[in-house]
Amino acid sequence: xxxxxxxxQRCETIEQAYEFMLAYAAQGLSGDAASQSGGQLRDLLSRAxxxxxxxxxxxxxxxxxxxxxxxxTYAAFLQVLRRDAxxxxxxxxxxxxxxxxxxxxxxxxxxSIHVRALLTDLFLIDEILRGH
Length: 132
Fold this sequence. Notes:
Elements: H1 3-25, H2 36-52, H3 55-65, H4 71-96, H5 103-111, H6 113-130
Helix pairs in contact: 1-2, 1-3, 1-5, 2-4, 3-4, 4-6
C-alpha cells in the first residue's frame, strides 16, 4: 500500500467515525450499554484514535517522498495538523474512557473545536495533495 493509499484509508476511518457520531448524537440515548449502535460507536472511535496516531508524521513522509515545496510551508502546516490531531485524540480518548457514552456526550464531541479543526485540516491537505 502506498503512502497516499494509507493516508486515504486513515482519513476515511476518521470521517466514518465522525459521520456515525452525528447519527448517534441524534438518537437521544442516555448511554451506550443497551444499544447495538453503542458498540459500533466504541469500535469506530477506537479505529479513529488508531488512525490519528502518527498521522502528521505520515503526511510529513509523503511531503518528503514527493519533494513538495516549499518544504518549510508544509512543515508549518504539519505542526498544526499534529496539534489538532493530538487535541482531537485526547477528546476522543476521554469519551472512550467513560463507562457509558450518551448521545449528548457524542454531540458535544462532534461540536468540539478540536474535532472540527482536525477534519478541516484533513480536507485542506487532501485537496492540496490532489493537485500534486
